[in-house]
Amino acid sequence: MSSPPHAALASSFNAVAAQYAAARPGYPATLFEAVEEVTGRALAGAEVLDVGAGTGIATRLLAARGARVTAVEPGEGMAERLRAAAPDVRLVRGDGDALPFRDGAADLITYAQSWHWTDPRRSVPEALRVLRPGGALAMWWNQPDLDVPWVARQEERLAARCPAYRPPGFPGTVAGRLAPFGVRTTGRRVRWSRSITVEDRLRSLSSHSYLAVMDAGEAEAVLNAERADLLTLFPDGVLTEPYVVDLVVGWGAAAD
Question: Which domain holds residue 42?
Answer without folding.
Answer: 6-255
